[in-house]
Amino acid sequence: MGEESFAQTIDLENWMKKLPEQIKNTPFIYIAIPGSHDSMTYAITRSSDLAPDAEPILKRLYPLFKGTILRWTITQSIDALQQLLMGIRYFDLRLATKTGSDHFYFTHGVYAGEITGPLHQIKDFINSHPGEVVILDLQHFYGFTADDHQKLIRYLLNMFGPKLVPRIQNLQSITLNSLQRLGQQVVVVYRNPSVQSTGELWQSNMLPSPWPQQDSITALLLFLQNVKRHPGMGFVHQAVLTPTPAFILFRWLSTLREKCAKPVKNEIYPKLTEFTPGPPKTNGSASVNVVIADFIDLDNAIFSKTVINLNYKLLRNTNSLFHNNG
């Protein structure tokens, strides 16, 4: 089956399970995996309060321009389960505490809902889809004390327990098939250097996620094509535009979906087809593992289909892959 026809028939809900054996025996860090950027912002509403990660200017403008600010803060429109059903297997999570509450919340400048519901959606999904593996990347922690970190880690260990993929030295030895044999389905990356995390949690350097911080398509593409990765680690390519305050000011009445996500879809996604999973080339560039985007539901999940489809290049490159890896 050609790559083009495959993209049409892809079973997004079970795509990992349905990969050819050759790909399921490829190191997990060399497989192309679609992810969502600021994954939980779909839960932001007009009643959402400002969160501890809000920029100072936001605090001044929020009461007057709440509607506009929300239009530029929300980066996803569907919940965690719907994202999973659309093939997303990586979640970019930013968390905050809230004064007067014992709970933890997702955040992106404003509070985006308490963490329990979405995490239970993910847990239920993996329990009913034993061939699928999900990465939870806990990127930022706002208003956290040392006790908060310990409490959150205990919560994650209790929730996912034996399903967690432990931290090991040789990431190249982890494959979808090896994980399935062990019943392990959840990678948790915990990006906080001050926390002596347990062996069940991965550290930042195991899945670097450099921020392009670009508001133009040309600059973003250059970044994605030239960013370097380490052959023994995972990697996140962020296929996202970052609007500056000036960028938003000139597009005040529009939305992040219209002015950032759609141009990326139209101009970056077609370029992603030139990328290849597998170990980095000698110059370390343009070999993909995780790729993330805003509004992953656009055009009937064309983003997930584009990224997942890259894996079929591994069938053509298998001999060199295992030669490089042996």
From TrEMBL:
Lineage top rank: taxon: Eukaryota
Listed Gene3D superfamilies: Phosphatidylinositol (PI) phosphodiesterase
Swiss-Prot/TrEMBL GO biological process terms: lipid metabolic process
TM spans (from-to): none
Residue span, Phosphatidylinositol-specific phospholipase C X domain: 22-191
SUPFAM superfamilies hit by this protein: PLC-like phosphodiesterases
CDD domains: PI-PLCXD1c
A GO MF term: phosphoric diester hydrolase activity
Record PANTHER family: PTHR13593, SI:DKEY-266F7.9
Protein name, per record: Phosphatidylinositol-specific phospholipase C X domain-containing protein
Species assigned in the record: Pieris macdunnoughi
